[in-house]
Amino acid sequence: MDIEIIADGLEFPEGPIAMADGSVILVEIKRQTLTRVLPNGRKEIIAEIPGGPNGAALGPDGRVYVCNNGGFEWLEVMGQTISGDAPHDYRGGSIDIVDLRSGRVETLYTEVGGRRLSGPNDIVFDRTGGFWFTDHGKGRGRTRDIGGLFYSFPDGSRIIEAAFPIFAANGVGLSPDEKTVYVADTFSCRLLAFDLVGAGEIAPSPIPIPGRPVATLPGYQFLDSLALEECGRICVATLLNGGITVFSPDGASEHLAMPDLFPTNICFGGADRRDAYVTLSGTGRLAKMRWPRPGLTLNFST
């Protein structure tokens, strides 16, 4: 697979959104911005977002909804940049909204059930206009907040805690029929599936652990954010064993290597949805390649 580097010099890019004009909107977590990358590689800052802008998605109102993890300490590992524990100025996480025309940033949610959001990470809208998001938790040396899966409304009226605990909930995506929501649990190396019975409502589990495992990767390879193909396969950015692991709903998988130890996300664009964009976060680059199958068209992306 031929890989083209579209842009470099990015400060831990994540949350890519392929736009109809060929540009890619993404966050730079370390720089604390929402940034547009043009097809020629030129970068434009859309908005400054204090804390740690992470996963991002276009909402039904045309604005970009951003999971703000509250920020990280930053580490250099094997010559690449990675995120660490909560920074000294950490005040909690939030869900923010960015107006693409003005760059204005609004905070939509900061807590659920009276508890502060810890590290919102990834987000996906369903066809009704509600959105699922994960909270990854937050590390503090020898202690760590536990993450979970949430469902929210874009008017700021309510958050539903759909599944808790998930140790380090990261990528989130909906199946093409929207009957299943997938979550990547980073440090367990596990892809989870949650069957849905309604908006924000997952099917009851026969055991006191929500969801069901699709697959667990062996060894040291951690799961990050994800996107789905039109056919229902789940493409998960895989850390350390740098690449994209493509899972079938039955758990079978294949791995496509990337030139980075810490690729964090993938999205699909182009007229046929086969232009795949991958954030190579460890080296601060955005890559583009032709994918073997079309990606799933996201709600409100056109």
How does this structure look, described?
The protein contains no helices and 31 strands. It has a single domain (4-290), classed as TolB, C-terminal domain (Neuraminidase), CATH 2.120.10.30. The protein has strands at residues 4-7, 13-18, 24-28, 33-37, 43-48, 53-58, 64-68, 74-77, 80-83, 94-98, 105-109, 111-112, 115-116, 120-125, 131-135, 139-140, 143-144, 147-152, 159-166, 169-174, 180-185, 190-198, 201-202, 212-216, 222-228, 234-239, 243-247, 253-257, 263-269, 275-280, 285-290. With 302 residues, the protein is an all-beta fold. Strands 20, 21, 22, 23 and 24 form a five-stranded antiparallel sheet that branches. The two termini are 27 Å apart.
Layout of secondary structure:
Elements: E1 4-7, E2 13-18, E3 24-28, E4 33-37, E5 43-48, E6 53-58, E7 64-68, E8 74-77, E9 80-83, E10 94-98, E11 105-109, E12 111-112, E13 115-116, E14 120-125, E15 131-135, E16 139-140, E17 143-144, E18 147-152, E19 159-166, E20 169-174, E21 180-185, E22 190-198, E23 201-202, E24 212-216, E25 222-228, E26 234-239, E27 243-247, E28 253-257, E29 263-269, E30 275-280, E31 285-290
